[in-house]
Amino acid sequence: MPRVEFRKRARVTVLALGIWLVAYGPARAGQAPGSQPAVGCITCHEGLADARLSAPAVDEPGDVHGARGFTCLVCHGGDGTSQDQARAHDRARGFRGKPAAAAVTEVCARCHSDAEFMRRYAPRQRVDQASEYATSVHGQQLARGDTKVATCVSCHGAHGIRMVSDAKSPVFPLNVSATCSRCHADAAHMAGYVLPDGSPLPTDQHELYERSVHYAALTKANDLSAPTCNDCHGNHGAAPPGVGAVVNVCGTCHAVFSSKFALSTHSQIFDRGCVECHSNHEVLQPSDAMLGTDEPALCITCHGEGDNGYEAARTMRSDIDRLKEAIDASVALVGRAANAGMEMSDEELSLREARNHLTLARTEVHTFDLPSVQKVIQEGFDVTASVDQAGQAALDELSFRRTGLAVSLGAILLVVVALALKIREVDRTYGVRS
Amino acid sequence: MLTERVINWLDERIDLTGIRHFIAEKTVPVHAHKVWYYMGGMTLFLLIVQVVTGILLLLYYRPSAEEAYESVQFIVSQVQFGWLIRNVHSWSANLLILVAFVHMFSTFFMRAYRKPREITWISGVLLLFLMMTFGFSGYLLPWNELAFFATKVGTGIAGAVPFVGDFLVRFLRGGDDVTGATLTRFYGLHVAVLPMVMTGLLMIHLLLVQRQGMSVPLGVERAVRNGQPLKQMPFFPNYVLRDVLAWYVGLALLAALALFYPWELGTKADAFAPVPAGIRPEWYFLAMFQALKLLPAHILGFEGEMLGVLGFSAAAGLLLFVPFLDRRASEGKANRLLTVAGVLAVVYLVVFTIYGYVAA
Prior knowledge:
The complex is a heterodimer. By secondary structure, chain A is mainly α. Helix content of chain A is 59%, strand content 0%. The longest helix of chain A is centred in the last third of the chain and has 60 residues, at 370-429. The N and C termini of chain A lie far apart (129 Å). Chain B is an all-alpha fold. Chain B has one domain: Up-down Bundle (Cytochrome Bc1 Complex, Chain C), CATH 1.20.810. Chain B contains 16 helices and 4 strands. In chain B, strand 3 (298-299) and strand 4 form a beta hairpin. In chain B, helix 5 (82-109) crosses helix 11 and helix 12 crosses helix 13 (304-320).
């Protein structure tokens, strides 16, 4: 083969190989662009006696970074190809070791705040976590030099980080309160932190939350939309909702209650909004007992006998109780008619409407406006009245049917007796014959 | 008397001598088992009730998936005495099949199918099958949840028939699944096709009964052959009056059941709703349904359900042609094997029906 021809063919081959490597090489190697192999790291670290140093060298299933080809070097730097510690841990080669608390956010943010980079892996993921974190109490404390506060790794872990949607992730909704409570329920860890009024920061939030209706919805009813810590406090920008913001925070889910409350005079008076009556972490199942003028009603905390609020609370409670009793009576009446075989499906449907009015009345209570509540309650009474009328008509009809049956059976009995007599007569006349 | 004048008027024109003679001469045998004769009359009475109440229901029933349930709801809640008509129709349908079964088994054990009554037997068995088909098709018509899913299961069983199973399922359902199309074809079957076929078969059955008279049990027949006289009573008026008395008792029972145990309408069928617990067919299919459920998935390499369906088809065939299988009966001799088979069939039907209810 002529030399020129050989060179030409060699160039074409090398070019093709180059294109193939560019196109398929990274994917085949399972590496993320920019990451370098960390064979050296693993070879040395997996043999170390100290578990803190050897554990990260072992591949952990579910590790979101490992699965995408990110190696030790992305966070720790250094020369991952070398098994010589001095060379591998050479600061001149970018080795930064275990990032200090103050540097963790910066290390994570190198990728997670890079919209262009993140688009290649998780295009829907937000890239403002670091800037949000800077606004959080954690971030602000960290900026003041407090290294006890939570950083990215405190919640997400350092190695073996899982997707938020992974049930094993510490930030999966079911695990969030336990993750936060690792620090916030630790009195020793939280010592020294204070509320704006100067009182010590409580450490019973998790304990209180576990008694709440929200925790029950999340863990017992498996409702992952039920709120946990981060739903009210934010996650990366975690901070207590400001006093004026509580209604907005609760209103993200309880929109109707929030809008009703916003119209009420209490919205101007209640410093802590919803929390005044419902508490914050220990939000218990609300009940009618919270309303009224008898213990354990909450209204009497502020209102005393003789004032308008006291009378309004007493009337609202008594109206709601009366509607409940009216619905119970209607249910019993319709049940009696239905059990006797009367077709009562329309009335059963109407009773749902009556129950809806009871619910609406309880919602309307958040306006703390008596006429508004009474209007809804009256609509409920109108429904129960029409149901009662239909129920009574059904029972009357049933009574008519029973009377009709008794008369019919009497008539049939007469015919049967007459037939029996006739049969005796014809038997005597025409008789059985052989 | 007006009746006499009308009869005389007719007699002058169409000569009623033959009918007069028939009425005067027709007798019914009197013996220890004569009570079973009333089952045929009671079946006929309940059938008449079905026809009358069915026609009245037709006045308001609307056969579509959108309106069927609501129309039945309207009948039982708004139409004057609609509740009575619907409940009597439902109760009468069930009693009809029960009485028809009793009639069939009493006829079987008395060997009434023997020569010369083979055609009467065959027409009777076919009428029983027709009544069950009436029940199956009528069950879906209120378009409630229980009936919807039971029909889905019931029609699905047809898929086990070899070679034509898929076609049968599609034919019964009017598509791949139970839909409004199934309802309309079940309606057509229930109010047009089945009544037409039944009218023809019933005419043949009744004509033969009148023409051939009542059969007597083998023991009575032997006694007559040995010279003992056969006691008889006149069909008219002695037997007819007894029949009418029984019908009145049946009517009273139907009215009481309709009032005190009204047929539940349930909730409207929803194809997207989860299958409710306790889905089962009407009681007269329950023994077969339960047996099919107990069969293993595969028997000797064949599908268990397919073998079950084939087995029941074979049993139905045997039942239909019993008169030709039991040669001894036509010679006036008892056939112990058939008696045992009959007893076993009754025990199976009773036990498996109860088992089906308990298991559900």
